[in-house]
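Notes continue from the previous slide.

Worked example: a multi-chain complex. Inputs as given:
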Amino acid sequence: MRARGLFTRTALVLGLMFLYLPILSMIVFSFNNSRLVTVWDPAHSPTLKWYVALMSNEQILRAAWLSMRIALISASAAVVLGTLAGMALARLGAFRGRMLLAGMTTAPIVMPEVITGLSLLLLFVAMQQLIGWPKGVGAVTITLAHITFCMAYVTVVVQSRLSGFDEALEEAAMDLGARPLRVFLRITLPLILPAIASGWLLAFTLSWDDLVITQFVAGPGSSTLPMVIFSKVRFGVTPDVNALATIMVLIVATGIAISTVWMRYRQQRRVRDLQLAALANL
Amino acid sequence: MRLTTASGRRLVAGIPILWLLVLFLVPFIIVFRISFSEVRLAIPPYTPLLTWRHGSPVLQLHWSAYRFLFTDPLYISSYLYSLKVAAVSTLCCLGLGYPMAYAIARSDAASRPVLLMLIVLPFWTSFLLRVYAWIGLLKNNGVINNVLMYLGVIHHPLALLQTDFAVYIGIVYSYLPFMILPLYANLEKHDGTLLEAAADLGARPLRAFVRVTLPQSFAGIVAGALLVFIPAVGEYVIPTLLGRTDQIMIGRVLSDEFFENRDWPVASAVAIVILLLLVVPIMLFQRLERRELEAAR
Amino acid sequence: MNAIPAAADPDSAYVRIANLTKRFGDFVAVDDVSLDIRRGEIFCLLGGSGSGKTTLLRMLAGFELPSAGTIRIDGADMSAIPPYERPVNMMFQSYALFPHMSVEKNVAFGLEQEGLGREQIRRQVGEILDIVKMGGFGARKPHQLSGGQRQRVALARALVKRPKLLLLDEPLAALDRKLREHTQFELINIQQRLGVTFIVVTHDQEEAMTLGSRLGVMNHGRIAQIGTPSDIYESPATRFVADFIGSVNMFEGRVSDDGADGLRIDCTELGCTVRAPRTASCTRGATVWTAIRPEKINISRQPPAAAGQPGPAENAVRGTVREIAYMGDMSVYLVQIDSGSMMRVTLPNVMRGAERPIAREESVWLSWHGSSPVVLTE
Ligand SMILES: Nc1ncnc2c1ncn2[C@@H]1O[C@H](COP(=O)(O)OP(=O)(O)O)[C@@H](O)[C@H]1O
Ligand SMILES: [Mg+2]
């Protein structure tokens, strides 16, 4: 028993180091003075010059702004569609098209991105020929593509949260006289709100981060941040990308820290509640 | 069960179905169609499938894209190479991910969420940047070589970048959370008393693990392996940034056919053949996923 | 069998279920059930797990559409009425308390849907919470309550709208034994106080007999028998009911005489002739089953008076005690009779430390009164 505990624990520690070492090295070298990126220049480091360079890089700022807008819209639309799909799968029982919907919401999660990207572009081309819309590729087609693959993830999150809830809750509300829309607004929505929130965050991250599908459906003048980064790093390492990575890690870390504190707080409340219930049993 | 009125039901299920039909299913049909066309210099750059001759439609199926695929050794070797890379990476992911998931599932309740958070955290930061970080670590004057030379382990830098090794590292690194999470979800549900029962019946720990824990976690292993294997076959970014230049993966082939050669029919045929290779794993994944999502109730 | 008039009088049927059937694919969950329920009664649906009780309730509440048949409540046909417009409320087996709302909010939910004023809602919620003795707990969330408290809140929430019919699906199943017995009587109290008609589903026969003014026994989606608790216990209509409610000794036999003083049944399994009250549907030569309740059998060392006569004994057999189980209030004897079959006999432990109790492996006589056996044809 002990030996295996030791082995798996060692694997865990090494695995975590493996996961964090590259991120750590990027952060360290973002403060390096040398152009050579991975050779520490002790004389002039640490320095913030790559951060300064980054902040004056028009191209990156413009791309970041575009990515931000696309991610906001895509995540919001994906949450609406994914919630509908998740509710249909978890609550409507057997309906026509159920298998189809279930298949179409799980497939995009594992589908190789080059295939999704190619097929979406060919669709947009065909649509343009047939109905004249969308006009060319750009932010609109990128957003449509992102909504499509993001909603699959939201569906899974919402569906699994809903399956964890007793369907009798909604039936009870209806039994007490609430119409379906009422039931959704007063019971279902509050219950799945955490799932919707994490689905939105997930969708935002996926959209913000996507390169391959975006490359297919983007046009000239609609370069997203990942596209700009890719074109920069494809031919070697550039120090300002380290600075960019550090900023993004910082933002995520802050968000996680806040949510962890919040969860701790809620958990403490839960513990207190459990104690109350235990007292009630006496 | 009538949770909603008939029209409400139709709306709830209908909107996402319609969206996915148009933006997920129809595109595949278009890809399939174009794979049977021939390339031409026009807009769009492929021949139509239906032509009108003497007032009646004529179906023109061209097999040239597929013939091309099976005669030029580049494609076949790329497919095989991609399958190999995906398989090796999946095994490595499993080898590293299983003990990690096991360790988390066996740790005390308070530290489990923290550990899980640590596993998922990198996933929230840019995938592209994390792959990029490996360039800095693996290249000739990169961190790893510098450290090894400083320690005197080696005297000449090792060629790490642009090797199979670098691609394995990149894929394992990027997909590890996808292996760990389903494994953890599975292992966490295991009943600890089963192992005690096995020990009580005289099984040594390793034997108890092989006979009790491992078979029970099979579903988790399959789910995690599929989540890594399927997308890895078509991986584009990792081999492009870290991989060999003399042997490319099929995702890159597809992208090059499309963007560099502007040969849409061949790109489509490449995609269709990838799908054919992956159709069994994808269906398997969907079945597992459905069972998982529906068992939760 | 003459205590309750047959429910043929249409005015007495407050809820009238006619030929109700529910199929899930090929599976028939509820099979041609017809049932009349009177205003103000507690009707208990009793049946094993999977017998279709919940499905029947869900059709009454409007969550499942019947495959065939009709439901009328207080004269109104319910077919086209959605759950949120039915004058019916349900207390769910899982209680289904809204986890994100306080007790007060939970109970108020139904009233809010009716568009009542704030003040009125507050008053009614307060009243009903007092009735279920949950007055001080209005601000708590469901997860801050114990199982018994949740049960009360669920009851209050379902009752506060004063439905014409309250459906309770295994209302006490989640409570431990002591609390359950206590709550049974409280439930009856509340029901009598408010006068609401109850349909209670349960798989626990004791609970059904305590709560119900009448019972319906369900088996494989069908109603096997309807009647008062004593009807069903003393005069079961089928072998299933006899066996399901309480325990019973049942033997196959053949009707040998059909006289004015009752039936005479030859039971080879039992090794004696059974005399039993007449049953309308029995004729000479028919194969029947005789059912005798364990507590209606006497056990003694001496042969009963009637058994001394020559010829085969009537309503008496000899046997050997094989097993004795002391249950506190009574003792159960498993007796192997001379034909080889086993019989179960229960005796109340009236006196402490009786002088010479019957012991294992003792030879005994079992006998019963001629009115005790019930003759069943199906
Ligand atoms: N929605 C459904 N789909 C298919 N079968 C069902 C459904 N609901 C209930 N059943 C089946 O109908 C039978 C009766 O179920 P139920 O009414 O819940 O029984 P009870 O409440 O008496 O235990 C069971 O065999 C159950 O499997
Ligand atoms: Mg039930």
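Summary box: The longest helix of chain A spans residues 239-281. Residues C 24, 27, 29, 47, 49-55 surround adenosine-5'-diphosphate (ligand 1) (CB under 6 Å).
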